[in-house]
Amino acid sequence: MFAAAVALSALTGCTRTSYAIHTNDGRTIVSDGKPKESDSGL
């Protein structure tokens, strides 16, 4: 699973900014662009 996430981030990382978020239960969420949250200002 980790190798697939690395390969996916390598493919998408060259063309645009993406973030791989690893959850505590072992899932990986790949976002397109920087995540934004208006409530916290992040």
Describe this structure in words.
InterPro entries: YgdI/YgdR-like, YgdI/YgdR-like_SH3-like. Keywords: Cell membrane, Lipoprotein, Membrane. The chain has one helix and two strands. It is 29% helix and 24% strand. Strands 1-2 form a two-stranded antiparallel sheet. The chain has one helix spanning 2-13, and strands at residues 18-22, 28-32. It is of the alpha+beta class. It has a domain at 2-30.
SSE arrangement:
Blueprint: H1 2-13, E1 18-22, E2 28-32
Antiparallel strand pairs: 1-2
Keywords: Cell membrane, Lipoprotein, Membrane
Pfam family, one: DUF903
Protein name: YgdI/YgdR family lipoprotein
Summarize the structure in short.
With 42 residues, the chain is α+β, with helices and mostly antiparallel strands.
Which consecutive residue ranges, at least 5 long each, have pLDDT under 50? none
Strand content is 15-25%
Strand arrangement across the biggest beta sheet: 1-2
| Oligomeric state | single chain
Q: What letter string, H or E per element, gives the SSE order?
A: HEE
Distance between termini? 29 Å
Percentage of residues assigned to helices: 25-40%
What class do helices, strands and sheet pairing give? alpha+beta
The gross shape turns out to be flat
**Rg, Cα atoms, Å:** 12 Å
Largest sheet: 2 strands, antiparallel
Averaged pLDDT, please? 68
| Number of alpha- plus pi-helical segments | 1
Total strand segments: 2
